[in-house]
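Severity: low
Component: inverse-folding endpoint
Summary: output formatting inconsistent between runs
Steps to reproduce: submit the following structure tokens with default settings.
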């Protein structure tokens, strides 16, 4: 049985209005991108949001445009220093979650400043900071396209992890121990998901929350990899595929078990030679640098697609395409029973 997503359906998915996520509480982490430095946002003991340093990963919640940290402190941009901080008894600045997975203040401004602190890390300010010596413009991207909780405690549950088969180039191997799930909280999610289609080779579908991998659609995934530990050794690209009834984002569409068994079908993931943007089309998709071969997928399993030296401090793009007519359309979600493509550090 063949699986096709009509082009109109993909268009509506790519351009569907973002749901009013401010009406309900959602929890997420953030990364700073766009300049140097880049990496995960951490929080000091006094509520300063930073990039770098030996501070714990910051976890945020948002409700009705009020951003709070894991301690329940309101996050704000200081009226006197323009610093982005989360402190007790502070007056909240109103924030919104943008369509491009970026944090906005004043409803439209996505640009922040990362400025050197005294310990080698970088404090974060709004563009209103007066002294910008040594500062770089960055954007803050939030993780979990459904605003699902990230960085949650380890789970005692486990899933079977069949080894993925390769029909083109062999996968890299590593002596390191690589996670096959994201339960530890150390993982990277795609910050850009862009469907493409040979049926509309010059059409840019834009950033989407849903991946479409079918005989008529491929999807591109961008990862912004931190420059510091634990992303300085070996990393693994993993694909998580739970039963549809277990996902918190609702059901997905999957067809192709017959194609996998009869035509050696599955999903083909590849590292591309360039970086995709929201304007990338099928025709302008960068060429393949490394093809990881076909991963045969079945619901209820996790798969290790490949292991490789971590591309620390880099933005990388992977493509997902159909082999043998297999079709999958899913909403990227890192909540418990996570689904989708992730990068994890190995130990």
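Observed output (run 2 of 3):
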């Amino acid at each position: 049985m063949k699986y096709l997503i009509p082009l109109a359906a993909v268009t509506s998915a790519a351009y569907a209005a973002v749901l009013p996520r401010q009406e309900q509480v959602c929890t997420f982490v953030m990364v700073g991108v766009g300049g140097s430095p880049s990496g995960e946002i951490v929080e000091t003991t006094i509520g300063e949001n930073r990039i770098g340093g030996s501070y714990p990963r910051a976890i945020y919640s948002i409700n009705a445009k009020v951003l709070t940290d894991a301690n329940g402190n309101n996050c704000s941009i200081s009226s006197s220093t323009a610093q982005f901080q989360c402190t007790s008894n502070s007056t909240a600045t109103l924030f919104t979650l943008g369509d491009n997975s970026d944090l906005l203040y004043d409803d439209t401004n996505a640009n922040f400043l990362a400025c050197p602190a005294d310990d080698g890390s970088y404090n974060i300010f709004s563009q209103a900071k007066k002294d910008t010596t040594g500062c770089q413009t960055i954007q803050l991207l939030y993780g979990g396209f459904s605003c699902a909780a990230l960085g949650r405690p380890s789970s005692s549950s486990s899933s079977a992890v069949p080894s993925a088969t390769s029909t083109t180039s062999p996968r890299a191997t590593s002596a390191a121990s690589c996670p096959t799930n994201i339960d530890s909280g150390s993982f990277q999610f795609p910050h850009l998901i862009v469907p493409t289609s040979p049926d509309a080779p010059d059409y840019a579908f834009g950033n989407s929350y849903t991946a479409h991998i079918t005989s008529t659609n491929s999807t591109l995934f961008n990862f912004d990899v931190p420059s510091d530990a634990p992303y300085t050794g070996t990393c693994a690209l993993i694909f998580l595929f739970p039963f549809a009834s277990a996902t918190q984002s609702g059901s997905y569409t999957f067809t192709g078990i017959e194609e996998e068994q009869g035509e050696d079908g599955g999903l083909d993931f590849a590292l591309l030679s360039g970086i995709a943007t929201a304007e990338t089309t099928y025709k302008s998709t960068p060429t393949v640098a490394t093809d990881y071969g076909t991963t045969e997928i079945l619901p209820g399993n996790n798969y290790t697609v490949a292991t490789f030296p971590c591309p620390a401090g880099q933005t990388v793009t992977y493509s997902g395409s159909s082999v043998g007519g297999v079709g999958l359309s899913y909403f990227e979600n890192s909540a418990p029973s996570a689904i989708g493509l992730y990068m994890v550090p190995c130990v």
